[in-house]
Amino acid sequence: MNNPDRPAAPPAPASMETAGSSSHPERRYLLERIGEAAVAQVYADGFRALPRRDKLLIWHLSQAAVAGRDIYYDQRYAHNLEMRDVLETIVTYAAGVDGLPLDAIVAYTKLFWINTGPYNNLTSRKFVLACEPAELLAAMHAAAARGGRFPLRPGESIDGLAGRLAPLFFDRSVDPLVTNKTPADGGDILQSSANNLYHGVSMADLAGFEERFPLNSRLARRDGRLVEEVYRVGGLYSRYIERIVEHLERARPYATTATAAALDALIRFYRTGDNRDRRAYDIAWVADRDSPVDTINGFIEVYLDARGRKGAWEALVYYVNPEKTAAIRRIAEHAQWFEDHMPWDPKYRKPRVTGVTACAIDVVIETGDAGPMTPVGINLPNDQEIRELHGSKSVSLSNVSDAYERSTPLEFRTEFAWDDEEVNRAVKWAGFAAELTTNLHEVIGHGSGLVADSLMVTPEAALKEQFSTIEEARADLVALYFVADPYLAELGLIPAAQQDEMVRAEYEAYARNALVQLRRIREGSQIEEDHMRNRQLIVHWLLANTDALQVARREGKTYYRVRDVAAFRSGVARLLGEVQRVKGEGEYDAARSLVETYGVYFDAALRDEIVARVERLHLPSYTAFVMPRLQPVTDAGGEVVDVELSYPMDLTAQMLEYSAASRDLRTV
Ligand SMILES: [Zn+2]
Fold it and tell me: How many angstroms does the Cα of residue 249 sit away from the middle of ligand 1?
């Protein structure tokens, strides 16, 4: 599972600067804007201080991450690699040619890299090249004249290639959606999804067919028969997987015992593709809890598949951020104190709390399904049985969140804050406060609370479709309540003298977000997504039942202002008591009434106002990230003896470098 909430769209309690991180004020985070996308640089400050052994481990794991990148391109769309070749050849060879209008092609190419193909990551919809087919052809000829080579089929001319690919680049109605879970015409979910996880297969074909490799195979119809084309050495994507294995083997000598055991299990799984080996790998990966460097590499998340079974390939390499992990662990160690002080009926308090295992990490590279657009949190493995028997590992991607916060335009705050004081507080505190409340939400919020003995089913079963909103509201309320508790200063998480200001900034950000998030729902006047519902619920409940907040208007613009911080907190405590009771007793009607009264419906005219304000300021709707660049240092014998890290500050350079690294594996 991953938590895509922040990079996909600006955050709930958004912010721009974190209080504790003014050491690099001159740094550039936002690199460029392309359409509705922003591109930001990720920094990995802790890398230089790592022992050489860890750096060498990271180097080889990163090579493995680059080696598999094209697998995900191919999984996402069967034509992706061919299209990318054409675009990259133009960008490399035709750039700067006089009289060639390349702007549209360059912009499209960047969006293509960011989204790994011509489909928007958030909406699943195809985007097209905004120039004439003749202009693309002219650019191809210009590139060819300067030595650029195109993926021509035997006997094919450049004109022939351009004509063949034209529908893919220019026609929105050809393969319109990469994943389509609810075809409007009642069509087949596999046939109407353009991804390459299936070939010539419909849901009806699957009746009575038992998959031996549900996660790591493409299902294809060959000669009238259904076959599983297994992703493994000797199977589909063999050349890429062999290269991955090669790098994992080189990484192994630098790994801790626990990491080496996990790498061995992963290599074995890549060789056999067998589900038992996948389980063994999951177990070994979860058991490796204390190593300073870790990797995720394989067929993991299933969001790309309309059926939710096939794993999309991804890789991450990261090291633990000890400072930020210490903050999470300090909270986790005192979980019992928080439980004992929950502002709800003592009968819902747990007598014994077991803390959550979580790490804050800094990524060095993310590829495939994990980059250039990335989650901010990951909790794996996905196999429910292994989670219950062996536990799971949860990581929050600190340097990604940081780059995201710092690349967020200041206008996100100035436009929706009432006055300069509120803006200044947001700039100073919102990043820090967002991190602290997120930790409280995850580590204390979700794990807290007991249900009544009389509740005979799980709360999920009792509250049905209302459960997720209630549970997310509960975790948010726990965070909003404790963020203002003096105990946090006692734990050393915030200087006591600054806590009041930080709390006000957090409450203001939370209130503003209820307005700003409306921009995401451009049609209708109803919210479906659970996190959005819970945030509306809390703010609108406070508006209706306390003196904490006030709706203010000025020059045709609407603002949610925090009027009284103490009233905000006591309102949060009151609502939290009720929400816990509703969950603890499994009261479906009360849950539904809370959610429908405060969380679901909004005023369409207000939404139109917010959308207009956001559009006038040209604010991005998602952000992609440029990773650090690693450079090996070799000795006289060519052996890698050290690794240097730098920042490319350039999406194009990084994407071309990654693509070049696996060009020899292509079998075009
Ligand atoms: Zn949550």
Answer: 37
Residue 152 CA to ligand 1 center (angstroms) comes to 49
Burial class (CB in 10 A: 0-12, 13-18, 19+), 198: buried
When pLDDT is averaged across residues 621-627 and rounded to a whole number, the result is 92
CA 449 to ligand 1 center in whole angstroms: 14
- Distance between CA 185 and CA 192 in Å, rounded? 10
Residue 20 banded pLDDT, cuts 50, 70, 90: very low
Average pLDDT over all residues of the chain: 91
pTM listed for this prediction: 0.83
More confident residue, 153 or 390: 153
Select from 14, 44, 8, 39 the least CA-distant residue to 629. 44
CA of 146 to the centre of ligand 1 (A): 53
530 has pLDDT over 90:
no
**For residue 396, what are its two tokens?**
């929050």
Cα(472) to centroid(ligand 1), Å: 5
Distance from Cα 224 to the centre of ligand 1, integer Å: 46
Q: How far apart are CA 76 and CA 59, in angstroms?
A: 27
Burial of 90 (0-12, 13-18, 19+ CB in 10 A): buried
| Amino acid letter, 268 | R
**Mean pLDDT throughout 575-587?**
97
Measure 3 CA to ligand 1 centroid, in angstroms. Answer: 9
Q: Convert the pLDDT of each residue in 337-380 to its tens digit.
A: 999 999 999 999 989 876 457 889 999 999 999 999 998 878 78
DSSP single-letter state for residue 374: -
Burial readout 542-581 (b: 16 or more C-beta within 10 A, e: otherwise): bbeebebbeeeeeeeebbbbbeebeebbbbbbbbbbebbb
User: Could you tell me the distance, in angstroms and rounded to a whole number, from the CA of residue 26 to the centre of ligand 1?
Assistant: 34
CA of 568 to the centre of ligand 1 (A): 21
Tell how far the Cα of 45 is from the centroid of ligand 1, in angstroms: 28
Cα of 149 from ligand 1 centre, angstroms:
49
Instruction: Return d(Cα 297, Cα 563) in angstroms, integer.
Output: 49
